[in-house]
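User: Predict the structure for this protein chain, please.
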Amino acid sequence: MGGDHAPAAVVEGAALAARRGLGPIVLVGDQDAIRREAARIGLVLVGGDPLGPNDVSVEHADECIAMDESPVKAARNKRGSSMHVACGLVRDGRACGVLSAGNSGALMAVALLSLKRIPRCERPAIAAILPTRGTPSVLLDVGANVECRAPHLAQFGVMGSAYAEIRLGRSAPRVGLLSNGTEPTKGTELLREADALLRSTGLSYVGFVEGRDLPMGAVDVVVTDGFTGNVALKLSEGIALAMVDRLRNALKATVMGALGGLMARGALMSLKEELDWGRIGGAPLLGIDAVVVAAHGSSGADAVANGVRVTRELAQLGLVSRLRAALASADVPQSGTNSLGGLMP
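Assistant: Here is the predicted structure, written as structure tokens:
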């Protein structure tokens, strides 16, 4: 029920994912609205148990959380929301993971209340895959925690490193802490404290990295707070789209440019596909004791289908157990603050 194009795009995406053999999928929300959309596209909703890899079913929820609602208040007051019901399916062993294109702050808050944290994780983080000049990197947190303490950032580094290993296939991923310079004297007192903690984790930690290092792929994992990471991610998305458009317009400006554009069409299409956030599918909430994935609010059907694929892959790869083991072995200090109060508004 969440996202800019819900429920139509979500139902269409589920149907597309099911055709790709990525089911079974349970659509959670207003069953009347879901059934109308399913009928519109000719999707047959099935029931019973067990469901097959091409099956889609529906689970009714009386409420939904709007995009502009306070995450913490909605999580506490709307216990019948589609997010609560979806998380309940995972908690009860009826689903392997949750995917939502709705209010990401509310998704985090509901997941914390319903599914709890992995031990030694005080603040779960949203981890995004960032295209770079070379191979992709992981950026976290990109939207869950507006305020962090040094131990939180160190925990992000541990979880981001484990995630890069299983999602990107990196061995001993290089981890950097986002700052305003690479020198040890740069950054705030908070960042310098986090820097010291990360150096004691046993990770392949390289120290501070700057904003310009992100698109260059200087490290495999970039650690920052949710406010800064969200700005950095959206700035990167905007710059990438703007540069592709400028290149396209420049090629159209002259006859020779148009000819060159035709010759480079394949390369340009590959670049556009690589920069397409919809291909990524979604960003997992690392630190929740279950697989929970936040899809982009503007997700269309293909992005939703890719989100289903990512959610299932992370469950099959044992994401939660890998994070649990990484946090236990790193033995990062605890700050003693793990309330919902630090979530992004």
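The chain has two domains: 8-121+280-317, 125-278+321-342.
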